[in-house]
Amino acid sequence: MPTAIGATGEDLVLPATDRQTPAAVVLGHPEQQPLDRQLADVTAVLDHYGHLVVVVPSWLPAPARQRLHTVRSILESDRIALVESDLPPLAVAVLVQQLRQLSLYDLGPGVLGGAVRLLSHYVHAGALLGSVARLDRVEVDFRSHLKSYVPGRQFAVLANPSPLLLEADGNVRLPGPDFSTHLTFGARGTGGEWVRERLAPQWRPQLVREVALPEWSGRWWGTGRVVEFAAHIPDVGVLYQLVASVRRENCGWCGLELIGDRCPFCAAPVGPPAPSVPSVTTVSE
After folding, report:
1. Is pLDDT of 149 > 90?
2. What angle do CA 215, 29, 23 make, to 5 degrees?
């Protein structure tokens, strides 16, 4: 039975690129979904799928974050994993899509929950910004801050895997992935020509796809004029090999098979093997 994958908003669920990719379970914000309705929906998901892995952005507002923990607490369920991600909004949506694809494979819920951090390392996420005056997610030096007030200036910013900020002149080159990717982008308040005409020829993705920009993108990047992009591995077979190649452990508390240093469901740490206890020999006089 596949594990259900959850997202914290409709805007973080990208359209599936094939007919096999399962839909995501959307746990809406408190003002969008009454608590009793959300409890009923999550209960139905658990009854059908057994386990639910929810990707929780670190920038999610406190009321929405509290609602998720309330649902888990009321249901007294250790079958719900709330796994945090520091990625920017569009990259979170990409990560949710990758987990949806992997959920069809023979990977247990503990392994899928642990894959969130692993797969994040292979997402190159950034944006083209007209101003970095309010950007607080990536370090901005004083010179770049001043240039934000000059009309016509643009900045190319990488947030993951290594933060970087460059002025987007004609010769700028952002360090990109050294493996095959698709390049997904969304734009608001400006066009996406820079991604298609400048970034794509540098990064050489197999496919460039434009999608609707997540609602939170403007706030994450500190400006309403933003082109956000994420290069990611599209081949689910490659994603599976990455996850399957990682050493697995059994959680000492709930028994789930997992990867990483902590169980995503019960939060129990994966400790070192228990030391052997020397036997005591009784010597008779």
Report:
1. no
2. 75
